Amino acid sequence: MTDVSSEGISFVVGGSVTGAGVSTAIGGIGLVGSFGGIGIGMGIMTGVGAIAGAAAYGTAQAVTDKDATVIGAIGLGSLGGIGVSTTVGGIGLGIGGTAIGLGVGSMALAGGVVGLGIYGIGKIFNTHQVSSNYWKNVQFLQQITEEYETERLWLELEEQSINIEDELNSLKADFSSQTQNSNNHTSPSGNNHFNLPEIEESENCSWQCITVLKGHQKAVNSLAFSPDEQTLASGSDDRTVKLWNINKATSVYTFVGCSAEIQTVVISSDGNLLIAGGFDQRITAWTLKNKALFSSFFGSLNSPNSHNGAICQVAIENNRQFIVSGGTDGKVRVWNGYTGELKRTLNEHLATVWSVSISPNGEIIASGSADRTIKLWTKGSIKSYCTLSGHLGEVTAIAISPDGKSVISGSTDGCLKIWDILTGELQQTIIGHHQAILSIAISSNGEILASADVQKAKLWNLKTGELIEKVLGCHPVSFSSSGKFLATGDHDRGIKIWCQRLDNSQIAFPLETDYWWSILGVSKNATLKEVKQAYRSLVRLYHPDLNKSDDAIKYMQIINRAYQTFLDSGSIQSGWL
Q1: Edge-to-edge strand order for the sheet containing 91-95?
Q2: What residue spans define the domains of the chain?
Q3: 310, 422, 411, 450: which is closest to 366 by C-alpha?
Q4: pLDDT tens, position by position, for the chain (577 residues)?
């Protein structure tokens, strides 16, 4: 039989009388919010007073009985108050002509009082046992809170005591069944058998980050590989263009002199010419061999500028017969690839031309614009033969497939679209980004499409539209001429170089560098989790029990030294991780 506390009833009655008295003394009270206005009369105030009385009784009983479940009741009530505030939005309390805002904190406090009131009511009607589902929920919440706190403390202890031996020892067990015939290999750490590390879903092993290039002072906007895949050019908001040696992961030359941010860089297919453009409204070309200025492109005799606005993108025809540029002035301009002379201007777009592309045979030019259209032009024409419409946002990225049959576009609407280049028919729409797509690239075999926004980079099967994998990079993206390498932006003003691997015999070793972060393929300011994940991924690739190549032991030693350098750097102790 359920007991009823007469003392508790007196608390509730006293609270009810007080609530009614407050209503009589103050007068009109109401709640105002996105739901409109609701008057709070004497009846509601009496109920509020009753809950307050029950809360007071519950507080007294919790102190007397030393009942810890009251904390869970308050916590659940506070969560409910926060949920109401989040769902409803702004709430105000009107009292006698004065409005008082009720934010998340106030609603959490009110919810806590309600939770305490329910606890008090439970105590009033059941003074000996707590058996309802409500109290079970309170106890469950308390239990999982304690478990979470215990787990957090263990994680902190684990991070503070991290070292290479612990890492390799933590990779022990399952793998022994797969390596019964590999006992003749010697592990650099002295451990022959270890468990395969768990890799997050976004870290698919078909593309491996082999280095991170650091040197730009601001965001990188454009990337371009040389035809021999030995050099990478990058343009940045720091107003410089850098050349990088891919094998040594070092900057080998910096072009300076541009007076504004660089938006686009491109290298000619013969490897002789580097072209850049940006917010200084100029297209500038240098020879790669001697790093000398080749030419500046002038839009008219009366102006030193190439466009009457920023240069958004430049493309070079494969035989360097002509160069195409697009700018914020809404124009597409075609230039002689050897003299820099302006040949013609294409004027059909109504807003910024964000991207341009040239077909492999040089017969078709594609342009994408902020007017949400794509226009297709034949070589030598000043009138487009087709206008493609369908994006709900600005068309920010354009690429023509290596077989010259399709145009691929990316937009601020987060979609990729594939079009027939001759008929303009929309063949496929890929919805894969939650942010504006800023750059796309296609592998030389026409099988992989890379797309990137400011946060993520993704790889797609160009034929099926299926997502192949996510790589831990961002805008911009660029494939090398063979498709073996992929360059992406990094979130810390860096550049990531990725290598596609098909099997263990084709794994590319981290580049020749003394920087631990480049060997591990992370940013210098990577978090502890990112560094551990990168290290485990490399262990999975190069440990002699997995990798049968003759150089596996040497590679693993270099990786361990890099990881040890990270641990010895004081990064964990200094707290910047």
Answers
A1: 36-39, 29-33, 91-95, 98-102
A2: 6-148, 178-205+501-577, 218-491
A3: 422
A4: 445 566 666 665 566 656 656 566 666 566 555 545 556 666 666 666 667 766 676 676 666 665 666 565 665 566 566 555 555 555 665 555 555 555 656 666 666 666 666 666 666 665 444 334 444 444 444 444 444 444 444 444 444 444 444 544 454 343 333 333 333 333 333 332 223 233 333 344 578 888 889 899 999 999 999 999 999 999 999 999 999 998 888 899 999 878 899 999 999 999 999 999 999 999 999 999 999 988 878 887 778 899 999 999 999 999 999 999 999 999 999 999 999 999 999 999 999 999 999 999 999 999 999 999 999 999 989 999 999 999 999 999 999 999 999 999 999 999 999 999 999 999 999 998 999 999 999 999 999 999 999 999 999 999 999 999 999 899 999 999 999 899 999 887 899 999 886 654 455 555 556 677 777 777 777 788 888 887 887 787 777 777 766 777 777 888 888 888 888 776 543 333 3
Residues 209, 215: Cα–Cα separation, whole Å = 18
* CATH class name, domain 178-205+501-577: mainly alpha
Q: Is the dihedral of CA 487, 482, 506, 514 positive or negative?
A: negative
> Which residue, 433, 424, 430, is CA-closest to 453?
433
Question: In angstroms, what CA-CA distances link 254 with 239, 241, 514?
Answer: 10, 6, 21
- Residue range 218-491 in CATH 1.10.10.10: no
Q: Is the peptide bond before 360 cis (omega within 30 degrees of 0)?
A: no
Q: Which amino acid, residue 181? A: N
Neighbours of 291 (CB within 10 A): 13
Place of tokens 């797509």: 437
